[in-house]
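User: My instructor asked us to take a sequence, write out its structure as tokens, and then describe one feature of it. I'm not sure where to start. Here is the sequence I was given:
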Amino acid sequence: MSLALGTGVALVAWLGVEVAVSRWVEIPPEPYPETFGPVHLTGNALLRYDTRLLWRQAPGVSIPTRIANGTPFTVTTNALGLRDDPFPVHPGSWRVLSLGDSNTWGQGVENHQTYTNVLERLLKEARPGVAVEALNAGVVGYGSAQSLRLEQELLGDRPFDLVLVYTMGCDSSQGPRPDQAYLHGPAVTALLDVAQHSGLFRLARRAVHGSGRAGRNQGDRRAARATPETYRANLTRMVSLARDRGAEVLLVEPLPVCTRDECSSVLSPLEDPSRPRAGISPTERSYHDVMRAVARETGVGLVDLPAQVDGWGPTQAIYIDASHPTVEGHAHIAAAIATEALPLLDRWRTAHPPGVHP
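Assistant: Let's start with the prediction itself. The structure tokens for your sequence are:
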């Protein structure tokens, strides 16, 4: 009896403190570090801690920022917390979901200059009268594990007709890999999701880990690579998930890391400056081979950017730093994807009458 009474009193006391904290103590969302790799996020207003994705972008913000060499650009997010316009707009549109890391996100370029947005314009110009909407779901720092979870989230609520997968650099780099070491299993994630609604939990976590600019977030970012086997498994699951939702898939083999003289002054701190100055290093090659193998095994299309980049002009016109494309580079990537995507769009257009989405 006394145990039950004590438990009841403790529960009532906890609920009282919980209500008081939730109502009167302001606990802003836990941010990720202000400096995220080579991207400097002014005021740290963009990235927020998330139990499933580790970090996601705040919705409905417009943030001026810059890259390490000082180039300014603005990051604007929609209601989904993604770097794009409102989505969707047209109920009968052909919809493209573009997944990836900072190359897709658009480091150093404006929203409308990312290859996803350029691709949307190219497809509309090539097929006048057909509504096309492409959603840029690239997020800075995301590896394939996080892109897979974001894909699950987005495809769960919305129909897409084509899924683009441009993710590799954050898996193959010897750099911050929180998604490898700290992605939780379903049970722990569900428990944390519930705990996020507790003011006491958030207050205690903030007291232990600080404001997020140090402590937990910085300490969790361990240097490691995702193994090629893990990368293969994630890519395969991304293809299967898209197909299960009735979408076509194009794997986009990323640009090779630029280690030529033109890029050496702005080499990413995650890259090894001793690697060969041209071509794909042996470490990178294993991940490129994985993407090619997944394309063959699953029968999806592959956009081979490494085979095309040498024909796009001077290195400095294509690379803004060691791995990210310039505005011109994004335009070339969009054109390469459009070549593979147009037959898929034509097939969809033939199978579905105007204004009716499957």
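For the description part of your assignment, you could build on this observation: DSSP finds 14 helices and 13 strands in the chain. Try explaining in your own words what that tells you about the chain.
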